Amino acid sequence: MKNIIVLISGSGSNLQALINAEQQGGLGGHISLVVSNKKAAYGLERAANAAIPTAVRTLKQYKDAGKSREDYDRDLAEFIASHSPDLIVLAGWMHILSPAFIDRFPNKIINLHPALPGELDGAHAIERAYDEFKAGTRTRTGVMVHYVIPEVDKGSPILIEQVPCKEGDLLEDLESRIHSVEHEILPRAVKQVLQGSTD
User: Which among 95, 113, 146, 183 is annotated as catalytic?
Assistant: First the structure.
């Protein structure tokens, strides 16, 4: 059974989609650990409810000790490497990983990003897409799962799906449509990567 480690920062709705897929036999691996960089992340409860071990590693502990982000990333990589992951999934992980982490796991880290390749890299992608839609310069956005490289949201896409912006949309409508696609596309991408097919 392929070993999956999921990194989260928040509510964990995409983690829940992965848990559901595993329980239905559609993930292609086993989630053996969930790591959060926020103590209050609700995703930790989702993991506990599914009997998945959890760990919390906050950057603040390192900053308070006068250590760097690279120190944090290096130690996090060491900790995760000790669990022998076949795949690391960033599912709402809101900490930009440095090469100190990424270089330990070549082609083993994937990320979910609510935008299409080459568009709206970085944070607040849904809000930025909505602002452009309201300004009349965007009619669609999308979701991608991609390999993680040091350049934020620039790694090779694994799966891509367009999401339309519809007349009369509120931000919440677009967010809901995007999240529905995320919950469908992320488990598919995990299974595809673990089966060794990314075409």
Answer: 113
